[in-house]
Write a structure and sequence with these properties.
Helices cover 44% and strands 13% of the residues. It contains nine helices and twelve strands. The protein has a four-stranded mixed beta sheet with strand order 1-5-9-8.
């Protein structure tokens, strides 16, 4: 017992000493600094940012350096200044070094972008899924290490912030375009929340697509997510499932990060992309399944004909009349629609549950 007491005393002494500077003074830890606090301002843009923070506790930034603190003098007699910077490379899953961005200096367009966040984005996001902050940027470049998949992005979710790209374009968007963009941001935010707080229901959502893939070896543990698809593999072979258009696996669209996004060659979305796409749809259409179905059918009517011409035997198509070909398109669309509506209704349940949680 005596030895334990002596050890506790020694340990406490080491902790005390560790917090002291060389001259015996206690150094500040800066642990009590709230870097995300927005201060009141008479400036119209910064005043609007403060209103959002005051009412919603969400910080909106247009600069990635969100604060600075003097931390004393270096051994060379220079001032040591710490700059707190929003790092887009750190996500919930990894340290991702493939994101670059350009900040905007147009305060007039930034004001409209912040107003858009205040009026259209925040009211649609369930409070439980609020991001820590938004960083508004002029241009957001994703997949920067790949010349074949590098692209301009609209949204990127990092650990401490959600970056919103193309913010200078918001001012010129129509009301419908703004609604669509707001739903996309909301879907991304809710998807990020569900990814951080996974449930059996979320895994069941992914399973709806996993179960549709036909593999040569069903026990091999392959996933349909993030999978390169090529109609060369019409039948399952190795790590390639039997080919179908993305609708056939319950996806609303191919991955934007794939090398190709054609009806005969594409990459399936990641789980995060799939979930966010469906959540976006639920915020646009809600319980109006007829309107969702109508818009999906319009899209399918443009894509399925190309898919059939690329993937079916020419001899099976050449004798079809225009009406017969359209009937074939409708038959495929009806089959795919049933798959997609099943996933939509599960995603709608997620949305309604998040809204209910926010009201408690």
């Amino acid at each position: 017992m005596k030895n334990n007491i002596l050890l506790y005393i020694l340990w406490a002494g080491l902790l005390f000493c560790g917090c002291e500077s060389d001259d015996g003074r206690l150094d500040p830890t800066y642990a009590d600094i709230d870097w995300f606090a927005i201060q009141p301002s008479d400036d119209p843009l910064d005043g609007l940012r403060y209103d959002i923070y005051k009412n919603n506790r969400i910080s909106v930034y247009y600069n990635d350096t969100i604060g600075s603190r003097y931390r004393g003098m270096s051994g060379y007699g220079d001032s040591v200044i710490h700059h707190e910077i929003l790092d887009l490379c750190y996500t919930i899953e990894e340290n991702n070094q493939t994101v670059e961005y350009t900040l905007s200096a147009d305060r007039d367009k930034l004001y409209d972008a912040v107003k858009f966040i205040q009026q259209k984005v925040i009211p649609s996001i369930p409070a439980v899924a609020y991001p820590k902050s938004f960083l508004l940027v002029k241009e957001l470049i994703l997949n920067t290490t790949s010349s074949t998949t590098m692209r301009v992005g609209k949204i990127w979710t990092a650990m401490m912030t959600t970056a919103i790209g193309t913010v200078e374009d918001i001012q010129g968007m129509t009301a419908d375009e703004q609604d669509d963009f707001a739903a996309e941001i909301t879907g991304e935010a809710c998807g990020a929340y569900l990814s951080k707080n996974p449930t059996e229901q979320v895994e069941s959502f992914y399973a709806l697509s996993e179960d549709l893939a036909e593999w040569e070896d069903p026990e091999a543990g392959h996933s349909i997510y993030g999978c390169d698809m090529d109609n060369y593999y019409a039948d399952p072979r190795g790590t390639h499932p039997a080919f179908d258009i993305w609708y056939g696996f319950g996806f609303l669209a191919p991955s934007p990060d794939g090398r190709y996004a054609d009806v005969d060659e594409y990459t399936t979305p990641t789980k995060a992309q799939d979930l966010a796409a469906y959540l976006k749809a639920t915020f646009l259409y809600g319980d109006d399944l007829d309107r969702f179905r109508e818009n999906m059918k319009k899209e399918m009517d443009e894509i399925i004909p190309d898919f059939l011409e690329e993937n079916l035997d020419e001899d099976d198509l050449k004798d079809l009349t225009e009406q017969e070909f359209q009937e074939l398109v409708d038959e495929y669309a009806e089959y795919y629609m049933e798959i997609i509506l099943d996933k939509y209704q599960v995603a709608l349940q997620f949305t309604n549950e998040l809204k209910a949680m926010s009201k408690k």
